[in-house]
Design a protein that fits this description.
alpha+beta; four-stranded antiparallel beta sheet; two-stranded antiparallel ribbon; 14 helices; 8 strands; elongated
Length: 323
């Protein structure tokens, strides 16, 4: 539950810092419309789901000052809000996550934490630190759209990724060594104990919990979770893990950390289709999917640019989409 906002590639924050993305929205979070200017006597910039994006400030401040990127951000926000309902669960989790972020900022910046947080939120298009929960909710709603798009278009979107990047979940047992090229008698004995325990029929998870020196994964039965060929593992480990099929276990693999036994827990999409780490990896590799999702949803909602073909063309060009 707490990981709901730690989503794939598009959003959110790592530790106490935001990943600063894009430019200003300059949007009032409490309103359904974004200010804009008359074009040939027409107030409407575009319409999403019968909600119009209008008035002078849109063009004068956003479009003229910040360019088409700001138009895209306003467009994306309108599409997301028209497509995904804000739930009580989102609000509760946003509040909890925001409290954790604020606590981290307080620890790092002390009395100036609020100013620092406001600075970052303004760079993301929000007004001040009070908008942190709104930012988190907006990100979660966008992520829901992205996730559903991948699920709905598995054959055309996921299958090529699967073939090229070999997604899977993996576990390992590490026997840590000072010099993996020259294991001590004690280290060799520990490896032998692992082999014996597995030969006796103990599960990989049981043996990992008892013997693995990777304490972070040992508490989870050795599970490393989702990985693919782009995951930042040491080369020897990565090559061995990618060479295995589901349910297979490697021989001992040497790395700078020591020796590993690797087990592939699953290569089945159904086992990690709800895993945030999968979407994070996928959207890092295919960032253009975000624009495709937003445009597809906008068309579904009946987007109307009110005759402003020039703006539409610039927006589609920015999104990398051709009709």
């Amino acid at each position: 539950m707490k990981d709901m906002f730690k989503k794939y590639g598009v959003v959110i924050l790592v530790s106490c810092f935001f990943i600063a993305i894009i430019a200003y929205f300059a949007i009032d979070q409490s309103k359904d419309v974004i200010p804009g200017k008359q074009v040939n006597g027409e107030d409407i910039v575009f319409t999403i789901d019968d909600k119009s994006i209008t008035t002078n400030e849109f063009y004068d401040k956003l479009y003229n000052d910040l360019g088409i990127q700001s138009v895209y951000q306003a467009f994306e926000k309108a599409v997301v809000n028209a497509s995904v309902e804000t739930t009580d669960e989102m609000k509760a989790l946003a509040k909890e996550t925001a409290n954790g972020i604020i606590s981290n900022f307080q620890s790092q910046y002390g009395a100036t934490y609020e100013a620092e947080l406001t600075k970052i939120l303004k760079s993301l298009g929000y007004n001040d630190s009070k908008d942190l929960e709104a930012y988190l909710i907006q990100g979660e709603k966008r992520n829901q759209l992205l996730k559903q798009y991948i699920l709905d278009n598995k054959d055309t979107v996921y299958t090529p990724y699967e073939a090229e990047y070999k997604p899977r979940t993996a576990s390992h047992i590490l026997i840590q060594m000072v010099d993996a090229n020259n294991p001590t008698d004690e280290e060799k004995a520990k490896m032998a104990e692992v082999d014996a325990a597995l030969a006796e029929g103990k599960t990989f998870a049981e043996v990992a919990t008892t013997y693995s020196d990777d304490t972070g994964s040992a508490v989870n039965g050795g599970s490393l979770g989702f990985m693919d060929s782009t995951t930042q593992f040491v080369p020897e480990f990565l090559a061995a893990a990618l060479a295995l099929n589901e349910g297979e276990r490697s021989e001992w693999v040497k790395s700078d950390y020591g020796y590993h036994l690797i087990q592939i827990d699953s290569t089945n999409f159904d086992t990690f289709k709800d895993d945030d780490a999968f979407y994070n990896q996928f959207l890092t590799i295919y960032p253009e999917i975000q624009s495709q999702v937003i445009w597809a949803k906008a068309q579904e909602l009946g987007v109307d640019f009110a005759g402003n073909d020039e703006l539409k063309a610039q927006l589609l060009d920015f999104m990398g989409i051709s009709e």
